[in-house]
Design goal:
seven-stranded parallel β-sheet; Rossmann fold; 13% strand; alpha/beta; single chain; SDR_fam; 263 residues
Length: 263
């Protein structure tokens, strides 16, 4: 196998991506499709799922609130039936959560952030890992953390707490699942271009009393390369981790962020 072949995921991989009707998840799903994988996506928004399937008719898809354990169980079972097994799980689903001083954060918003960003990772893992053990000889798990999983993030404490927790989950699972030949890694995106990041910037600008443009400039000054990353940058790393070239990479928290120096 030459180097170009090693850099591509094996054709026919069975892949499940959560939170994948838009943004990073959609880019990951599309990249795997282009690599001749069989891809199942889920998302909480039925209309977004319908648009994704219209754009990519080869996609398998289901609707689920990832914070709901029963709905995740249903999606996993549907994915197993449609794909015939599972090689790659991409635990991508997550929300930005509230922005504000810790004493001002609504407890319900805190709970929702923990449920969506962290509990969902476990809900998928508890059902997906047994299927990978049973049906795959090249199993891989990629969990989406964040640069907020390696740096402190004032005014975004619930989000940062979940993203740090995901790194700990990944490093622990890599040890646990290594003997079963299942690799587990986390990707830590930085400031990602798109509507979601615009909303985050706007919320933080409002909470600190500055303009959107001033807050955006502040974000860029914290990045060594002085530019945001794209959803395709994250998708590229996900494919690499699922490829033969990544076969000995496990237990890692890999930043794709242009080197964010601080938050």
């Amino acid at each position: 196998m030459n180097i170009l072949e090693r850099l591509k995921p094996r054709p026919g991989l069975r892949v499940l991506v959560s939170g994948a009707a838009s943004g990073i998840g959609a880019a990951i799903a599309e990249a795997f499709l282009e690599a001749d994988a069989n891809v199942y996506i889920c998302d909480v928004d039925p209309s977004a799922i319908a648009r994704a399937k219209e754009k990519n008719p080869k996609l398998h898809a289901g609707v689920a609130d990832v914070g709901n354990r029963q709905q995740v169980d249903d999606v996993i079972e549907d994915a197993r039936t449609r794909l015939g097994g599972l090689d790659v799980l991409v635990n991508n689903a997550g929300i930005a959560g509230p922005t504000g001083e810790v004493e001002a954060i609504n407890p319900d918003e805190w709970d929702r952030t923990i449920s969506t960003n962290l509990n969902s990772q476990y809900y998928f893992l508890r059902r997906a890992v047994p299927i990978q053990k049973e049906t795959s000889d090249c199993a891989s798990i990629v969990a989406m953390s964040s640069v907020a999983g390696r740096l402190g993030y004032a005014f975004r404490t619930p989000y940062a707490a979940t993203k740090w927790a995901i790194v700990g989950l990944v490093k622990s699972l890599a040890i646990e699942l290594g003997p079963a030949n299942i690799r587990v890694n986390a990707i830590l995106p930085g400031v990602v271009q798109g509507e979601r990041m615009d909303r985050v910037i706007a919320a933080r600008a409002a909470s600190t009393g500055v303009t959107f443009d001033a807050m955006k400039d502040e974000y860029l000054r914290k990045i060594s390369l002085r530019r945001m990353v794209t959803v395709d940058d994250i998708a590229d790393m996900t494919l690499f981790l699922a490829s033969p070239a990544g076969q000995h990479i496990s237990g890692q928290a890999i930043s794709v962020d242009g080197n964010v120096e601080h938050l």
